[in-house]
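Whiteboard transcription, Tuesday session. T.W. wrote the structure tokens on the left side:
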């Protein structure tokens, strides 16, 4: 698992398995699929059950935050949900945009898109749709969205710079994003970075928090702020599948912090010059 395409195939395979299970099955198995030799995909999950628009069949327990909580979504907005899975965040967003708004979910796993579409058909929403596509090449026209949200997905994307550039492209001027994701402070063991399960489990694909924020700024976003941050503890029984006791002890004594963050940033309208040599 070295090339971008190999990484994507691993992710598609793992999340296809997860898509065919319920949240309860994901939580009762130690890896969120059908075996007990993988990462627990529900370690980071949040309780959505009291949110308006929550639909249990769409909740697979795969998020690491609640991006809609800080996304300032308004009635009539067009919202794009990147890595929409079975539709959990998309349906919560739909409750906020109302009948006059629109929600577009994007996911690269066919099984997830199929499940989301079935959920949407049961709910009968005509202003929610789910499209098959990749975050590095979002299947939407430019400047279509008021808000972009994503939940624990960008860490899985091989080229995060491309992902943020695409988010910038699809946002309207004065639009914004709110993304929950996993980042690092400190060094993740190189031995674990090559483990496919750890990548698909949203850990080994994570980058440094400082680098993550720098990429957002580099892309052109402004007014960047972290709305929520929480340290995540990975259980020893997961680490023990790949590391010795001594290696686990060294890891615990290191400066590594695995963080769940929810970050907000704006795409501000560019100033245009109305008189040569001046800007208004």
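and on the right, the sequence the group agreed on:
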């Amino acid at each position: 698992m070295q090339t971008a395409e190999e990484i994507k195939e691993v992710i598609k395979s793992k999340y296809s398995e997860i898509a065919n299970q319920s949240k309860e099955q994901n939580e009762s198995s130690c890896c969120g699929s059908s075996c007990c030799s993988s990462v627990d995909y529900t370690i980071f999950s949040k309780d959505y059950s009291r949110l308006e628009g929550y639909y249990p069949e769409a909740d697979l327990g795969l998020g690491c935050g609640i991006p809609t909580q800080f996304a300032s979504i308004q009635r009539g907005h067009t919202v794009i949900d990147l890595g929409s899975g079975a539709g959990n965040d998309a349906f919560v967003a739909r409750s906020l945009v109302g009948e006059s708004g629109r929600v577009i979910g994007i996911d690269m796993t066919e099984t997830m898109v199929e499940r989301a579409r079935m959920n949407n058909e049961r709910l009968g929403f005509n202003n929610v749709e789910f499209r098959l596509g990749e975050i590095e090449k979002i299947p939407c026209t430019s400047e279509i969205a008021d808000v972009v949200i994503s939940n624990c997905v960008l860490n899985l994307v091989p080229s995060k710079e491309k992902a943020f550039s695409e988010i910038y492209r699809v946002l309207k001027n004065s639009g914004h994003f709110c993304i929950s994701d996993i980042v690092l402070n400190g060094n993740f063991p190189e031995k674990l970075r090559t483990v496919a399960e750890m990548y698909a489990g949203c850990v080994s694909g994570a980058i440094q928090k400082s680098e993550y924020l720098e990429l957002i700024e580099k892309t052109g976003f402004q007014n960047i702020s972290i709305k929520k941050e929480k340290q995540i503890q990975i259980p020893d029984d997961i680490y023990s599948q790949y590391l010795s006791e001594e290696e686990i002890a060294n890891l615990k004594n290191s400066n590594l912090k695995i963080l769940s963050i929810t970050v907000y940033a704006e795409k501000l309208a560019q100033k245009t010059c109305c008189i040569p040599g001046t800007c208004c």
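Someone added at the bottom: The beta strands are 78-82, 102-107, 128-132, 145-151, 171-185, 222-232, 257-267.
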